[in-house]
Amino acid sequence: MAGFEAIASQYVEADVSAVTFSSIPSTYEHLQLRLDWRGTYASTGIDGYIRFNSDSGNNYTKHMIYTASTGGTAVTESTAESTVVSFGTTGSNNRMGEWPVVFLTIYGYANSGVGFKPSFIHSVLEKTNPYNLFGSSMWKNTSDIDTITVTTYGGNVLRGASMALYGWKSS
Fold first, then answer.
1. For residues 43 and 48, what is the distance between their CA atoms, to the nearest angstrom?
2. How far apart are CA 77 and CA 62, in angstroms?
3. Cβ distance 34 to 120 under 8 Å?
4. 52-99 residue pLDDT tens
5. Is 0.70 topped by the overall pTM?
C-alpha cells in the first residue's frame, strides 16, 4: 500500500533528557518525523535538535530561510554542523502556547552509499513573534539511518511533547 505508515509515536509523560527512535526498519523509501515540541528554553532561543545514529560530529550541512511576523527574512548556511536541525522559541521562556512544530522529511534514508538529504519545516506558534523556518540539510554519511534522537541543549524534553515517526512508500 502506498502512502504514510506510522512506525512509532511517543508522548512524553515526564521530563526526559532525550527521545530516541531506534531500530528503524529499512523497508520504507523515506521517513517523516513530526514534533510538537516542548523543551527547556536556552538563552539563544534554540531549545532542541535532532541527530542521526548518535553522530555528534560536524557532519551535517544546513541551509535555512527564516521569516518572522515582525518583518524581514534571513538566509543562513553552514557546512559543518553537529545536528540535522535545531529549533526552539524566540521568547525569554517557554510561555504557554509558544511551542514549535517541526516536520522533518528524510529522503532515501536506507540507501546505503548515498548521502542523505533531509528537509525540514519549523514553525513557532508564538503570540508575540510567530515565525517560520524552512530549510534543507544533509548528513555527510553514507550509512543507513536506524536511530533518530531528539534532545535539548542542556535541558529536558518536557512533559507534553509528542513525536511521531512515519514511513513513506510510493508503491
1. 12
2. 6
3. no
4. 999 999 988 888 887 777 776 777 788 888 888 777 654 444 444 556
5. yes
